[in-house]
Amino acid sequence: MSGIILLVLNNSQYSIFGAPFLNVSPTCGPSKSGFNMNVSTDGFTPNAQIDWKLITSNNKTPTYGYFSANSTGGFNDSVFVGDLKDGHYKMYFGTDANADGKLDITSPIAYANISMPCSKQ
Predict the structure, then answer these.
(1) Can you give the pLDDT at residue 108?
(2) What CATH number should be reported for the domain holding residue 27?
(3) pTM for the full model?
């Protein structure tokens, strides 16, 4: 008996099969006052522009930005996220070689799940 196992990773802290490493912390915060998120990644195109987009559940982009990758295709930086509506978001990362604000189709894309506000425990 043979088969194929498909492993899908999101918000991972390690790289497998050439997928970029991504760590976002924290992944939730206060929506009204905003908060800083620390982002570290590696495995994208070296020295490329890495775009990030925060996407709502109805496919809107309330905020976005970019980082410059180092020689290993990564960065370690922070981004301020604020004044967002409560809800669940996906924060996508990928290269944008021509700086047109769109993630390159050929780029590996990584994402993290983000929530506003943090759920009460």
Answers:
(1) 87
(2) 2.60.40.1930
(3) 0.79
